[in-house]
Amino acid sequence: MSDIKFTIDGKEYSAKSGQTIVEAAKANGVYIPVLCHFDGMKPAGTCRICTVRVGGRFMAACTTPVSDGMIIENMTPEIEDMRKQIVEMLFVEGNHMCPTCEKSGNCELQALGYRYRMMVPRFPYLWPERTVIADTPKLYIDRNRCVQCLRCVRDIVTADGKHVFAVTNRGGKTIITIDTELAATLSEEMAQKAMNQCPVGCILRKEVGYRVPIGQRKFDNKPIGSEIEG
Ligand code: SF4
Ligand code: SF4
Ligand code: FES
Fold this sequence. Notes:
Elements: E1 4-8, E2 11-15, H1 21-27, E3 51-54, E4 57-60, E5 71-73, H2 77-93, H3 108-115, E6 132-133, E7 139-142, H4 151-155, E8 165-168, E9 175-178, H5 180-183, H6 188-197, E10 203-205, H7 218-221, H8 226-229
Parallel strand pairs: 1-5
Antiparallel strand pairs: 1-2, 3-4, 3-5, 6-7, 7-10, 8-9
This protein binds iron/sulfur cluster (2 copies) and FE2/S2 (inorganic) cluster.
One iron/sulfur cluster (SF4) binds near residues 147 and 149.
């Protein structure tokens, strides 16, 4: 039952009690960009791409519950530029070579780059040294493309509740690790889920590539957010 009234950019909407701002906005056909968030997963609030302004304060819309009378700013030039800066930072903090990436066209970071018309990032490229993990039978982990959203850590769990991915270190040295013994036991379905759950091209299936040709992929013809905005 819709029992909460709130506004986004001056328009009034209704929400169910307990919904986050992202969920309530989506249910009303309003797109708020997300990257670390995934429907059905407990939000982690790591990327801040979903930043909105509520009562003059910037908040992560994926972790903030909507409340009655809330006045939310979403598409102001200031907020949109903040989001664009985050996208630019994510590009310069990793090593992204889209034309050679298997995730191109299915990648949420790339799709956000297009949405925000990113040409040249305003920040200098850091060209970090990142290692890859290739010693698991079904998955290949290219940390050059990791955006540390932690979706894999939160959601890829074996039938007996063991986490396959973990995060180590802090700040700029944070890296994703994988339990190679557990990873070796993953079913084909779980391996595919791990790849799908990664918003970028960091987790890839081995021996499976380009099943869907470039040009026919998720964001090749429909920009990110269009499924919500219509
Ligand atoms: S992960 Fe996305 S942004 Fe990075 S190289 Fe691949 S397609 Fe490009
Ligand atoms: S490997 Fe992918 S899903 Fe995991 S933290 Fe990095 S970007 Fe996110
Ligand atoms: S989508 Fe909200 S913080 Fe990442």
